[in-house]
Design a protein that fits this description.
The chain has about 140 residues and is α+β, with helices and mostly antiparallel strands. It has four helices and seven strands; from the N terminus they run βααβββαβαββ. The radius of gyration is 15 Å and the shape is globular.
């Protein structure tokens, strides 16, 4: 596992496109890679990244902005390992609290977060656009 740099832009964009139907644009990723308050981790598997996590750090809090693992590697504990390692590094950087929001329908992610000690803090109504069709989906707010 390592911290990503601007040299990883093409790889991270491709990884995001393979992981999410609502992937971020190359310009969004470039912005994140160039900001000093962002912490982007990539997980290397067989010499090729298979997952990533992006955090925004503000004082002693960090927010998980996005975490993704290639579909063919999901369910193998990579997300857990990636997030746990990131939490450890964030604590070393002085972070005392970690926040996130997750789609209400993303049961696997909610289970992952709870297994790492996150608790539900509330709901943000209609936060996410539906991935298919029209309408909105609630976000569950969590912290640790």
């Amino acid at each position: 596992m390592r911290v990503a740099s601007q040299q990883d832009l093409a790889t991270i964009v491709a990884l995001d496109q393979d992981t999410f139907p609502d992937h971020w644009s190359e310009s969004q990723w470039l912005t994140y890679l160039n900001q000093s308050n962002r912490y982007i981790v990539t997980l290397i598997g067989d010499e090729k990244p298979v997952g990533y996590a992006v955090f925004s750090i503000l004082f002693d809090e960090a927010e998980l902005l996005r975490i993704g693992v290639l579909p063919q590697f999901q369910g193998a504990g990579i997300g857990h390992r990636l997030l746990q390692s990131s939490i450890n590094v964030l604590h070393e950087l002085g972070t005392k609290r970690l926040l996130l929001e997750v789609r209400q329908s993303n049961i696997a992610a909610i289970r992952l977060y709870k297994s790492l000690g996150f608790s539900e803090d509330g709901v943000r109504k209609g936060y996410y656009p539906l991935l298919q069709g029209s309408g909105r989906e609630d976000a569950i707010l969590m912290s640790k």
